Protein 1
Amino acid sequence: MSVIYQRVALIGLGLIASSMAHAMREAGIAGSVAGHAKSEATRKAALEIGFCDEVFATATDAVKDADLVVLAVPVGAMAAIAAEIGPHLKPGACVSDVGSVKQAVIEAVAPHIPEGVDFVPAHPLAGTEHSGPHSGFASLFRNRWCLLTPTPQSRPEAVAQLRAFWEGMGANVDEMDAPHHDLVLAVVSHTPHLIAFTMVGVADHLRRVSNSEVIKYSASGFRDFTRIAASDPTMWRDVFLTNKEATLDILGRFTEELFMLQRAIRMEDGEQLHAYFTRTRAIRRGIIDAGQDTAAPDFGRVAAAGGATALKGKE
Amino acid sequence: MSVIYQRVALIGLGLIASSMAHAMREAGIAGSVAGHAKSEATRKAALEIGFCDEVFATATDAVKDADLVVLAVPVGAMAAIAAEIGPHLKPGACVSDVGSVKQAVIEAVAPHIPEGVDFVPAHPLAGTEHSGPHSGFASLFRNRWCLLTPTPQSRPEAVAQLRAFWEGMGANVDEMDAPHHDLVLAVVSHTPHLIAFTMVGVADHLRRVSNSEVIKYSASGFRDFTRIAASDPTMWRDVFLTNKEATLDILGRFTEELFMLQRAIRMEDGEQLHAYFTRTRAIRRGIIDAGQDTAAPDFGRVAAAGGATALKGKE
């Protein structure tokens, strides 16, 4: 592939930024990669591993002459970084980010983008539970979605160029407006994560059931909650604080619905429960048909000793 | 291995019973296997596949001369079956079951067990989303837990024999009393399933987010909810109706906790959220350390196209 941006500056050098660096180099779509991280150890690692050509102690130095600047810091930290780099951005450059929430990022960053610089927010739906500069790998975005949420000010050419860049790293790219992105993610990600955190918390301090039992028998369904509840606390704190309205909206619907089912259990309304559970199966089939998951029992999960295979029909 | 029960009768020939038949034959721990299913097609399948030596149109004929009788029907159907077979059980025989709830099964079955016959309830924590006589396979119970909940009347010899039988089929066996079993399962399985059913239901009828989007971006966390929400509606209806008290108890704790976090989001109490999310990570680590799951990103799930790999750090 040919070079899409002559110089890319990565602000923040964690899992996502380091994976992007590996991926863009593998694809040959970046001329050079500059990086900035607050921690000197992280900057050193970036050079040692070799996914950055140069690293800088300040974000302002890192963005100098960059054609693409990617903000890969927690959502809560973006406003300060944007204010810092704004005056140092090269005319014609494009600023993007990888935040999990988009309206808040736009509010934090857009005001600091000068005339003649584009801002195209992005959110790659990819990650692992690991973090830091050592955790990145080139294939992280392959066949994953990257959602672009252009603002009215984003020039179509700038959006098209960023799309080509993400496609070059192997991602499938979709565009939607920021409020819709935040609602969709509240449904498919943010609320499920809060619920998982909650269920794991309940199990954690339940006295009559020892943690050892919870862990031992976790394959009975609970384990999948612990997986999604294992994500980075700082990132998730920022997600809920910055996607507050959509999350509270979906949470409200969730609790209404849960109370309806709770009442059906209390009233022993078997018909209502059966009808409800029958409806929810269809979505799962849709996900398998859409190739979003495997139909193999337990997703073809690598079985571990002691009941590791998740249970679908029989708990 | 040597024969543990000369004759085993399976009442109900679905996923669990057919898997037991395959497993006990492979291990050579059953002299002969008799089966009963209401549906003639199922009985025919059992003979064609060959996991039963004989099938019977009535449960009473199937249990004749059986040394072990396994009730593998939905929990709601056990009382009627027990009443039917009670008078036909062979003296010295052992009756067991595979129900997901144990107190309700004991209440339904125990009154029908005659003098001189043992009753040892059991619950293998294993299954897949598939069902019926064709879905069984010999390795289903390998390295899975099977929980025995003996009653005060169960003779230790009978319990030991059933334990050896399940170990012969590859399971790890634990014993606990029925009320504790029902509470543990309410925490690790029943409540998580109800919550998953609910979240999937919310997404299903959310108008502003099309199902296609929910499915397309499901790898962002939601997919794991759809997996556990895909289980058999009849089985789950019976689970919630028969483990009502424990499920309502855990649900109550869950909603209290959820409201606390919901309030923290509304009040923008980032510290409380961060502290909570940090605590829940420990349980996940415990599960990986205990060998209940793999630490490989996304559990080493077989990646499917279009974002199938689950996202741990970045939604």
Protein 2
Amino acid sequence: MTEHGSRHTTPEPSKLPSFPIAAGAKGAPAERRGARGPYKRSAVTRAAILDAAMAVIIEQGSRSASMREIARRAGVDQSTVLHHFPQKATLLIALMRERDARSDEIFAAARPATIADVPEALLALARSNAGQADIIALYTLLAAESVTADHALEEFFHERLARVRAGFLEGLTALSDAGMLRDGVTPEFASSALLALWEGAQLHWLIDRDGVDVVALLEDFLHLILRSPQT
Amino acid sequence: MTEHGSRHTTPEPSKLPSFPIAAGAKGAPAERRGARGPYKRSAVTRAAILDAAMAVIIEQGSRSASMREIARRAGVDQSTVLHHFPQKATLLIALMRERDARSDEIFAAARPATIADVPEALLALARSNAGQADIIALYTLLAAESVTADHALEEFFHERLARVRAGFLEGLTALSDAGMLRDGVTPEFASSALLALWEGAQLHWLIDRDGVDVVALLEDFLHLILRSPQT
């Protein structure tokens, strides 16, 4: 039984929008925490390879980054890299999925208890990104590379954007259904604009760390599209 | 004498904000149109080299793109490329400046006659970009590359962003002074958000040409920040 007459309805926490980013992706990484023994050793090696790959790609771009250089930087044989990631594309996709899975964890950790807390949980994710310039730079670079000729991540980013946009639309639709969007603001516009603003602002922040405040910009945007609590 | 009492004041056209992108840049390219004889031949060669460079960089990224391959693609000797662009950085900067100069021309060609026409001129620029996917992809790629380690364009994009943000702030301040911004919308937020939204939306459009409409998104955003004409 939903409470009619109250503008901010409060769905059960399990029904709150989660803005899933990695969740629902095909072949998303399995949970790796708490593994032991040989499996744990393998997971440590895998993580070292991903860290090395991130460093090499940020320096050289994903097209120039060689599996040999990644192996050297990770301190393992090239065969070990190929055991974990048979192709460079597999490795690039793994890098992006780890990042997306981490974003989902951060959003969940912000624990929105009512739908009114959802905007604050989005800002918590933006605040966390502000401490992760390297991974944001990697993401931005790979997304931009992905739209150039015959790139290994073209399909991945196309599928990812559709999924993330759908998740944001679902989230903003829930806010709209709860009467939280200002008159005239549609969930379609609000979700597309929020995501585009976020990514554009992150690029600008990478270019000018002192001059651009992503969190403040998102906060002001949310203020613009959300009905103010007093209204 | 400005008209007080009228909400939409109408500055003289020469005083209208122009959202300059290339204008004011250090070492912006001189006007090349109408040149003749040897100078014209040189300009044609230069343009052919820039076209070839764009194609090679979109395929390989700017780090891997070699001056030799660019020369081959342009059908000239490598020495000719080096005559026009002694370093790869010079060539990359020239590519970006040509794009920015073209943007300024398109905005000017939209000929805003009163300040109320300025938003429409911005949309005209966005519409023109929609027919220029290759140059938008090049710009997006180089901007993303520029924030990675020791990139030749780091300083260029840092200086460019500061300049473009200042131009947008000046433009939105003029709209604000003319009473065109909604209550509570500051020129600082409006200009930063407009630019970030625009670039983020362009990236999303490059990833999904059919699913993302940059012009519609900007139009809705302008609708959100501008006072509606009836008010």
